[in-house]
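User: Run a structure prediction on this.
Assistant: Running it now.
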Amino acid sequence: MNESSLNALVAKLGPGIIFAATAIGISHLVQATRAGADFGLALAGFILLACAIKYPAFRFGSEYAAATGQSLVDSYFRQGRWALLVLGLDLTISMFVGTAALALVSAGLVGSALSLSLDPKLVVMILLALCSALLIGGRYRLFEQVSKGFVGLLLVLIIVATILVLPDINWGEASLTLPGEFDRATLLFIIALSGVMPSAMIVSVFQSLWVCAKSKDMGARFNPTDAHFDFNLGYVVTTLLAFGFLILGTVLMYQPDITVVDSPNGFAAQLISLFTSSIGGFAYPIISLVVVVVMVSSLLAVIDACPRVIGALISYRKHTGAEKAGQTPQFRFGELVAQENKHYALFIFIQCIGAAILLMLFASSFRAFIDFATSIAFVTSPLIAFLNHRAMFSADVPPAHRPGKIIESWSWLGILSMGLFALSYICFGILGLGR
């Protein structure tokens, strides 16, 4: 492949790589590593299952936007008020709880990498301010370029680190099977892990908005074939990274004398040590920089996406209001999300302030805070997946761009599986059955 062909290929990538950057956050750096540290390779099957059953629902976000020129938000409006309520609940969790969780982990990584003695909450404030300034100043194009560079670099780093530690894996029964006493705490952690593996389901809505933003940046509709390739590449990268972190956690932390630290700075120090232990101390500066920036990329993705969803909701409401009043809308229906969000900066400010307040009030336990954010995402996953399924097989999508019977059946299987898992969480986690 010559240089021009490579540049053309890279130019086609974008939303799928941003998806990978988003997923690397809580689900990979924190939950997958913890899974390896606490259970060895025993949860590998759950990670693979979660990635498999959620694939169609995530894929539909990208495909729907590429096929119709609209985001999933538009489809949710047409599906009814209940769909908007589900979206609103998930959006609220992502906008405040999700942002707060990502900011807390990012602050821990920054504090550990730079050996800062500052309070993690103060570092959170600084990070939120810097991320807000970057997004408001650079918007989608700069955001995409940052994500491409550092996701690629982290992928190489994880592959190298994993290969180096593979000879040290204990393939014995202890690292491949769950504890004999499968208690409630283990079940709830598996639910929390699966809830955001490979990412929270609302990211499919974000994905559709990023495809629309990509189209606007290109000045033309993002080709459905290119969108499909872009998403699949991002999904494969996401899955590989999850197993990479699981293996690193197993080899370097699945030890009787090692306990996963329950604080952002302490866990971050353990995390960075995974790489330096397998690659070598000489790589510490590079490793620290890459891990910090990729984690911050996840934070950037959430801070960018939530205001886009709100902007799309407002734009759609104005559009339908103008139609009911007998007026001619100022933009065509399929271009709603391509309009510049006039209140983008205001929504980012509200999001960051809300996340900061949440951390001040409820972040006393690092583990509990992360598990709460990931478990809520798990409960709403089957509803978002169902809405995405209805969108992709609706009359909005031209028949030529609708998935075949295999993907349709796969989607229904995923929806039913997520529904059963969510029901088990409600029974055992919320109602306290089985105590």
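The two ends are 59 Å apart (CA to CA).
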